Amino acid sequence: MENKLRLRYSKVGKSKYLSHLDLSATLRRAMIRAGVSLKYSEGFNPHPYMSVALPLSVGTESVCELMDVGIAEGLELEGLPERVNRCLPEGIKIAEAYFPSRKFSEIAWVEMSGFLYYDESVPYRACERLSARYSLDCIEVKKRTKKGESIIDIASFVCDMAFSESDNIEVAAKLSAQNPTINPANVMDALAGEYEELAPDFTSFKRLELFDSGMKVFR
Amino acid sequence: MDFALERILQRVQRPARYVGGEYGQVVKDKAEVDVRVAYCFPDTYEIGMSNLGLRIMYGVFNGLGGVWCERAFAPWVDMESEMRRYGVALYGLESGDPISGFDIIAFSIGYELSYTNVLNMLDLAGVAVRSSDRGEDAPLVIAGGVCCFNPEPLADFIDLFFIGEGEDAACEIIGLFRECGDKRDFLEAASKLDGVYVPSLCEAFYNDDGTVGKIVPRQGVSFPVKKRIVADLDSSPFPVDSIVPSTGLVHDRVVLELFRGCIRGCRFCQAGHVSRPVRSRSCGTLVEQGIESLKASGYDELALLSLSTSDYGEIFQLCDGLIQWCEPRRINLSLPSLRADNFSVELMERVQKVRKAGLTFAPEAGSQRLRDIVNKNLTEGELLETCRIAFEGGWNSVKLYFMLGLPFETDEDVVGIARLSQAVLHTWKQHAKSKSRGVRITVSTSCFIPKPHTPFQWEAQITMDEYLRRVELLRASMRSKAINYKWHSPEQGFVEAALARGDRRLGAVIEAAWESGSRFDSWDECFSLPNWASAFEKCGIDPKFYANRERSDDEVLPWSVVTAGVSEGHLRRERDAARAGKKTPDCRELCSNCGVGCVANGK
Ligand code: SF4
Fold first, then answer.
1. What is the pTM (predicted TM-score) of this model?
2. Exposure b/e, B147-181, CB count within 10 A at least 16 = b
3. Is the ipTM of this complex over 0.95?
4. Looking at beta carbons, which residues of chain A come within 8 Å of B7?
5. Mind listing the pLDDT tens digit for each residue in B6-17?
6. Closest ligand 1 atom to the C-alpha of B592?
7. Do B248 and A22 touch (CB under 8 A)?
């Protein structure tokens, strides 16, 4: 679509608590405040076209969000991110705006990092045992889908997983972005049963980058 | 953000309302600030951020050099229990700093059923709830809002009440606060300002029968405290570049304030009486403020606010001016608070070209006799005529609001509500543009609550049983399935009535109710009558004494320590007129010398 603009933005800090609907409304209003003319749907209750690449859970941060918005013709792209950024709440910031050439469906992997916190102390040899847990050939977890709950093996949908220890455990990994969508909570669900002891009391995660199936950065 | 806070936010509903950071919030450099104010709204973020008063005062305080005003709201019950468990104290949304370290905690109190939230917020902040337990280091706790027109029930908890509109006084109060060495000095000095009531500077005495004997001010303090108003609303500040919440409001929209006060003089209406006289913003100013606010917020809806929008003198020019700007930008205009007259339908047709939102009217009473008694100047003819035009115009849903238990109400008046609703239905049958989609008439009733500073301030509220009897009578008189009758439970109204006309002794009851878990009493899912009943019992106080008892003519009323400007003589004349079933003309037709001293009318 000619008049579709792709925004790449971050959603960190306080704004990580905004729901998907909150975020769309917030971005829409920011663009209106910044004088960006949006393209509206026809009909009874006209609304602008806005589509987010991958839904982000409330509480997870990201520096690689993508959203396509319909814009009116003849929009001045020059300086657009700066203009809109001045109108955004704390934590949301547009890094670039461009006309997209690829479809969201080509996104295959999401690179993430995160922290695992333990109330007592970090379990004995945690990194080693976590790495062992996640390098098994079969890692079955319960996953809720539209059709209800099912058991899936996430082993082939998680790659490049690495752990490091300080006061807590830092984790990095690439997770399958779509079909199926694996989110950090699914990954943590593998720390049940005999791995219970490794389950953290609190976690925080951040999306870092999007990749296609050939592990090239997706834009 | 604080780590403990981050952790608990992961476990509560709608965490976004607890973090601030919205577009338009004010953040100042602490090094350049010498007075920090926590503007506390004793209800949820969503309700508070929809409150125009909060937005105005936030702008006023932050407009003062050296003052940083932040917001705090009542955390919902899930958040409260997490905060208590992890020792997170109530904080200002802007800085995240605990408000116990602020200089001033300012509550805006709009309804009696939020009193327990006031105490709860102080406690969550780690600040003693009773003024007498707060030392020199504790923040000064002040309150404003319509409930302060009877400050007595909260007298034990609040250091200073501000009566009336705060725009002009904020600066004076902060100025005095800076000058004075300690709290005592400050309170004494402040008590000399118009609009300021300091409960610790006076003492209440009671008669053997339980009524108030007298309330005696300390030397140098004079009673009654006169409310403050903004004389020239047109030039008074309006927050065009206010906060744009990122989450959760029921209505995301710009709200324009057309005027304050009301010309109508409905005898049950507290807002109309305490906000007199009418002061308007000019059409030009409003159009400008509307456009500026829409630009600054990015909202796609604009609402007009006042006690009776149809009474705004230049309403057509105003709507035309706004529509001109709004329509090409797909911005909707909405007009709450319309009177049920022809004029309103014409207005609605102008502003709502596409969507036919439901019509809402408040005839308040079912018979002409009772509407005359309460001075609700609306005839059955007018209501039906309005409905006819609306039905012909394609509307097919009407909501009608009534009160049960208005003074002098008879069973005939109650049944009159059913009759009137039936007449509305009949009008639809005769005049509906299309009957294929049917009609929805919703009738709802609530129990009348006599309020201070109104002509009905001496009246008894009917008992809960009596209310339910009238509900049953009305329900049995409703004949059609097209009319849907909903009644509010009388329980909250009963407690509200007791608190509204309470004296100082109710402080102990409020505290006891709060201690035993009462919170968010205006929310059905939180309110507990048994909890309140045992709090009253524990304090040896009968709530019926406050709610269901008619005050004698010479009784000292607890709220006589403040005046809203309307003279007691006028209230008594109005009460007599009600008894005689006589209407009083509106202020535009004829001034009835109520005592507020209308500049425009030269009174
Ligand atoms: S002084 Fe007269 S015009 Fe003004 S509010 Fe009172 S009754 Fe109405």
1. 0.94
2. bbbbbbbbbbbbbbbbbbbbbbbbeebbebbeeee
3. no
4. 202
5. 999 999 999 999
6. 7
7. yes
